[in-house]
Fold these 2 entries.
Entry 1:
Amino acid sequence: MSLLSKLQNKDNGIITRSDLKRPQVRILYYALFTICLIITIISIAPPLWVLLSSFKDIKEFTIEPTILPKEYDLNRFIKTWNDLKFFKFYVNSFYSVAGSVVCAIVFNGLLAFALSIIKPKGSKFIYALVLGSLMVPATTSIVPLFININKLGLSGTFYPLWFSIGANAFYVVLYKQFFDTLPKSIIEAARIDGCNNLQIFTRIVMPLSKPITMVVAMYAVNYAWSDFLLPYLVLNNSGLETVMVRLFQFRNGKTADVDILRAIVFAIIPPIILFTAFQKQITQSNTHSGVKG
């Protein structure tokens, strides 16, 4: 059975099997299929090029360029890993990511809990400010943020990276929208049983909020791992550089380009493994939260 015949047996989606019996719909179906195929190829082409090029030696990459590497020698990756001492930067990145995820869940969750469940006086004004901050480009705040980090003596530590994600308006909005859907009767029952606000947050709200917590955690991991500007300003030449900062430093050094490509492969492997391992949970969590893409 061909691929197209398998697709034609689909009974759900925007175009069903019965729709395909009409010529106009069939033309539309193949047009959409072609567009999706082109977008897919364009999307996977850059990482595929990086992966294939990383197996080449410097001659194959620059002097006599080839499309496919002549051999797939993993020892070249081991040599690059050891030469560039990548393990240290992996540890730094994992440390940065772990703290960022904890801060993203705890601090943003607490603020959303206050805005959605406790609702103190002025909470609507605070939420309006949170929504308004989403309209401010992040790059415009980098200068005052960097000045404050230096005044507080936090330069050369991971705290600025953790706290910046712990005060993320987008995560607050996600949490608040989800908390608004929780049954109020459960909250009131917990209050009648004697739970204070912190106990309601830790014992009732957060256990019921695993889907949105998974979404926030995935976004925080991706952001913390791929962020470059703030780690570069805060951690540069401190010995705590993350993988992304170290990649930039390698590029300015005398390292050969093919080694840079292998270093890029090391940088993109963890997000790929994470997404592959938790693909089902991420998709389900996005559906629960109403976040698409």
Entry 2:
Amino acid sequence: MRQRIAFGGLFLLLVAVPIAQWLNYPFAVSFLTRFAIYALAAVSLDLVLGYGALVSFGHAMFFALGGYVVGISAFHVTDAEPLFGWLGSNSALIVWPIAMLACGVLGALVGMLALRTSGVQFIMITLAFGQMVYFLLVSLQAYGGDDGLLMKRPNTIPGLNLANPTVMYYVCVTALVVWTAFCMRLVDSHFGMVLRALRQSERRAINLGVAPHSHRLLAFIISAMGTGLAGVLWANYALLVTPDMASWAKSGEFMAVVILGGVGTLLGPIAGALVFTGLEGVMSALTEHWMLFVGPILVLVAVYGRSGLLGALLKERHV
């Protein structure tokens, strides 16, 4: 069932834009690009939330850091003096790996401290780090402060023009597919089985010789890098990075997407991202208080559909 859903979803992702253009819905390309970016962030969060039982409420800090690395690098290329002797770069082949590496380092620092605790304490520590990053970005007046930082043009990839919305969409879809496939291989590997064993019974896993801290820390770092990649894509899509990307509200959105689609399924969060961004698009056109309508839907899903939209269909769900 999981393979059928995966191939069916991939087919829909590939044909969605041509169908939208044929039906003369140009705004659909922007919506689908936004959906793909949210889905990438949600899949990354589900790796630690669904398989590691780590409820991170500050994952948006990695989303923001990935975006700001791209934005700051582009800023120094066009508008500012060199940064510590570095002229900056607008090349995706240089900046994107740096952004993911920076998110991995931040993930390691946060993870080493947060994983000393568990439960509510873990949630509060990740939330605290997320807010620290948020206020740090607000204080960076040289990079726009509250108003954020504009990018004059997207990053460059040889042979591709990211300024073209259709090209940007397929780049985002490619990143989503590759990252999801990587996460699926990861959770099916020995490493993934250890993570699930720790979730089911940490004491039993330790008795079998498993080192819980190192496995959870590595999962947290990988998840941070995936969320950072989503932030990189967002910066190139919106050509704007703001401190709000690191806010607790954004972390809550990512968590809502995962819960809506199905915790611990990897494919479920992709469906959750489609529904969430669709509801946001429709409801925000009617009222700025769109969460008043989306909130009850999330409550109903949490109460009556604990496995989310796809959790019941995915027989291979790992819990």
